[in-house]
Amino acid sequence: MKSDIRVCSAWRNRHDRPVYTLGSTCPDCGEPAENSAPAPFDPDDRYGEYRRALKRRNR
Ligand SMILES: [Zn+2]
């Protein structure tokens, strides 16, 4: 099933991790949300991207 999930375009600056939304703007900071394609997470592992994001932060 394809869903229209978007991600905050400014999450790297505004948030510790990607902020996903179904709307056109981020619910947290109001920045525009952009299409998250390629899908940043696997439906079977929806927190995988969160874990990878946390790893990236530690670099
Ligand atoms: Zn945001």
TrEMBL record:
Instruction: Quote the cellular component terms of the Gene Ontology held in the record.
Output: ribonucleoprotein complex
What are the protein's UniProt keywords? Ribonucleoprotein, Ribosome biogenesis, rRNA processing
Q: What residue range is the signal peptide?
A: none
Task: Tell me one GO molecular function of this protein.
Answer: snoRNA binding
Quick check: keyword Ribonucleoprotein in the entry?
A: yes
Q: Where is this region: Disordered?
A: 28-59
Q: Which InterPro entries would you find in this protein's record? A: H/ACA_rnp_Nop10 (IPR007264), H/ACA_rnp_Nop10_sf (IPR036756), Nop10_arc-typ (IPR023532)
Provide one Gene Ontology biological process annotation.
pseudouridine synthesis
Bias (Basic and acidic residues) occurs at 43-52
Query: One Pfam annotation, family name?
Result: Nop10p
Its transmembrane ranges are: none
Q: Which NCBIfam families match?
A: PRK13130.1
Q: Which HAMAP family match?
A: Nop10
The record's family statement is:
Belongs to the NOP10 family.
What functional role does this protein have? Involved in ribosome biogenesis; more specifically in 18S rRNA pseudouridylation and in cleavage of pre-rRNA.
User: Protein name, please?
Assistant: Ribosome biogenesis protein Nop10
Source species taxonomy: Archaea, Methanobacteriati, Methanobacteriota, Stenosarchaea group, Halobacteria
